[in-house]
Amino acid sequence: MVRVYNHPKLDELVLSQVLFALSDPIRLDIIKKLLCVDKMNSLDLVPNIPKSTLTHHTKTLREAGLTYTQPEGRNCWISIRKETFEKKYPELMLLLLKE
């Protein structure tokens, strides 16, 4: 069975959802990690938390449009949608890096 994830389009991004996704310290930390790499295995994003909790956080980030999830076998590779956000919310990523 192939997993398929929905990712919002540029015109579907809503600032309140983005800010909500970033309001959680764990999710904000995930975004900061992803800003420093090309992509990361979801299981390496936050060690020592239950997989169900990690899934909740990555889903929230994906549904807000912050991240892209690419399934590959038993792994999920997570990357940040930098280009999308630079078009919709210029300099948001720079603000996050300063945090």
Task: Characterize the structure shown.
The chain has helices spanning 15-22, 25-34, 42-45, 51-64, 82-88, 92-98; strands at residues 40-41, 67-72, 75-80. It is an alpha+beta fold and 99 residues long. It has one domain (10-98): Winged helix-like DNA-binding domain superfamily/Winged helix DNA-binding domain (Arc Repressor Mutant, subunit A), CATH 1.10.10.10. The protein has a 3-stranded antiparallel β-sheet. Strand 2 (67-72) and strand 3 form a beta hairpin. It is globular. 20% of the residues are buried. The model has no long low-confidence stretch (mean pLDDT 90).
CATH homologous superfamily name? Winged helix-like DNA-binding domain superfamily/Winged helix DNA-binding domain
Structural class: alpha+beta
Rough shape?
globular
Walk across the major sheet and give the strand order.
Answer: 1-3-2
Question: What's the SSE blueprint?
Answer:
Layout: H1 15-22, H2 25-34, E1 40-41, H3 42-45, H4 51-64, E2 67-72, E3 75-80, H5 82-88, H6 92-98
Antiparallel strand pairs: 1-3, 2-3
Helix pairs in contact: 1-4
